[in-house]
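Severity: low
Component: inverse-folding endpoint
Summary: output formatting inconsistent between runs
Steps to reproduce: submit the following structure tokens with default settings.
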């Protein structure tokens, strides 16, 4: 713990130390140590602020009385950075979590007091305070803090890693792993190759399995050695699998590691990963002693996966390395499953593999609400407003194909208006200043000048250009794959097309070419 005033208060207070001791019984992982350290500092900060409010409060156990409940509320609001003018918590999660912390401290204080004589009155006060926290914390703190917390998430940008970045990172890791494996195989004392292979293997497992970094980092040598990776279990059910599934079954091995809240979560290892694991376990005694973790540091802990993942994402030169972290990778997978329309049983199996419940999978990790509601639900809303929904009876949203030509035409019309305004602005700036009126001119002269200027900038309507048979034929041949799959071309595809045929399509808008492709595959344009 950091050696400052808050840390000193936490170390000196018996109840705060007792809280840390009771929490860490059976939970001595690095992640839990960090959580306990954080909770201890929060309780110490509460005690520090409470002492300023009332000098009779010496220890945390003195604060656990009903008469100090309002002081607790005031101090927690201060720690959560509550702003009375905006009615907002800057740190709403901290304020919410204090309710659970206080109830745990009340339980520990009651257990401590019940073992001492002549503490009946103090025990009753601790019990009453716990009742107050249970019944009133929501009204005083949690309700407003939860509202602030949820409102921050509503319009937050959902930034998922790009598929192209993930492919680039994966290819970089494969090449690096093979190179480091060959070097370490040749020279078992090559520490650079050993550490690099260890880090790359760790990232490969996270990328393939979408696991939390701490779960993979805490894999121990004993656990790996005790598992028979060649055992595939009872294979009487293999006849139910497809050929591709049988090939995958023979290509990957499965091991189970400890996940969040003690759940067993499986990870899949490819044949190359197993090869790297075997070599690392074989030569690790040359580099580390007294550390049981496969993915170890130079001391007694396991590596910090978040920093290593970002380091290699930046090293391989992806476009957005900051988007590639374990949580976003898990959200990326959850979003893909929604687009693929998984059944509930498939989702349940996936949730078990990921190490969480189906409810957490749907509510926390899915990030496609923006995509789904904008792209799919808007289709339903357009049908409801324009009518004719009866012709789509019995279809789901994916089966419904709508005529989006009016939307394209509206988009073109908006672009025309913008271009007209820009052109008018340019012409205004180029008007000769000698035509302007003098200060002593009459009102009639002013009116005449305004009329003259308006006539000068009046835009003559451009005649609409029709598509020739040759142009339509070129578009049809070039975008044949788009027409076959019934998808409109994107901006860069149309730009490439215009560069290929500059004489015929240079002065055409890209949206107009896109509309022609759309009209061809919807049979609205005759060839």
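Observed output (run 2 of 3):
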């Amino acid at each position: 713990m950091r050696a400052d005033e808050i840390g000193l208060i936490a170390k000196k207070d018996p109840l705060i130390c007792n809280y840390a001791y009771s929490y860490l019984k059976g939970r001595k992982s690095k992640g839990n140590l960090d959580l306990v350290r954080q909770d201890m500092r929060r309780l110490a900060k509460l005690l520090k602020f409470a002492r300023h409010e009332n000098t009779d409060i010496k220890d945390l156990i003195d604060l656990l009385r009903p008469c100090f409940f309002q002081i607790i509320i005031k101090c927690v609001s201060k720690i959560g950075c509550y702003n009375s003018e905006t009615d907002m918590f800057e740190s709403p999660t901290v304020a919410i979590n204090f309710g659970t912390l206080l109830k745990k401290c009340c339980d520990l204080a009651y257990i401590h007091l019940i073992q001492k004589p002549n503490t009946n009155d103090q025990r009753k006060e601790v019990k009453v305070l716990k009742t107050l926290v249970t019944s009133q914390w929501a009204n005083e703190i949690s309700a407003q803090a939860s509202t602030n917390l949820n409102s921050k998430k509503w319009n937050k940008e959902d930034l998922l890693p790009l598929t192209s970045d993930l492919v680039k990172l994966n290819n970089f890791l494969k090449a690096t792993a093979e190179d480091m494996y060959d070097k370490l195989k040749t020279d078992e004392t090559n520490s650079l190759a050993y550490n690099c292979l260890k880090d790359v293997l760790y990232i490969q497992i996270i990328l393939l399995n979408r696991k939390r970094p701490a779960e993979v980092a805490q894999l121990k040598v004993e656990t790996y050695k005790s598992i028979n990776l060649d055992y595939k279990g009872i294979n009487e059910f293999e006849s139910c699998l497809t050929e591709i599934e049988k090939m995958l079954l023979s290509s990957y091995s499965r091991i189970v590691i400890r996940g969040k809240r003690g759940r067993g979560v499986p990870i899949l290892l490819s044949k190359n990963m197993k090869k790297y694991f075997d070599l690392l376990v074989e030569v690790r005694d040359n580099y580390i002693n007294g550390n049981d973790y496969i993915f170890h540091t130079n001391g007694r802990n396991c590596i910090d996966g978040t920093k290593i993942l970002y380091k290699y994402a930046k090293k391989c030169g992806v476009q957005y390395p900051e988007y590639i972290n374990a949580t976003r990778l898990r959200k990326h997978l959850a979003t893909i499953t929604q687009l693929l329309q998984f059944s509930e049983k498939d989702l349940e199996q996936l949730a078990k593999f990921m190490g969480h419940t189906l409810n957490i999978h749907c509510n926390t990790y899915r990030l496609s609400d923006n995509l789904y509601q904008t792209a799919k639900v808007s289709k339903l809303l357009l049908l409801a407003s324009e009518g004719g929904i009866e012709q789509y009876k019995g279809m789901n949203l994916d089966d419904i194909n709508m005529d989006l030509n009016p939307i394209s035409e509206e988009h073109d019309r908006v672009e025309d208006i913008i271009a007209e305004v820009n052109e008018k602005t340019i012409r205004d700036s180029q008007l000769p200043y000698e035509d302007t009126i003098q200060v002593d001119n009459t009102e009639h002269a002013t009116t005449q000048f305004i009329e003259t200027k308006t006539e000068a900038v009046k835009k003559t309507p451009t005649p609409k250009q029709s598509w020739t048979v040759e142009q339509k034929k070129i578009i049809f041949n070039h975008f044949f794959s788009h027409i076959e799959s019934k998808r409109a071309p994107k901006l860069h595809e149309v730009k490439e097309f215009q560069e290929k045929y500059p004489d015929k399509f240079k002065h055409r808008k890209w949206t107009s070419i896109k509309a022609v492709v759309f009209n061809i595959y919807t049979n609205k344009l005759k060839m």
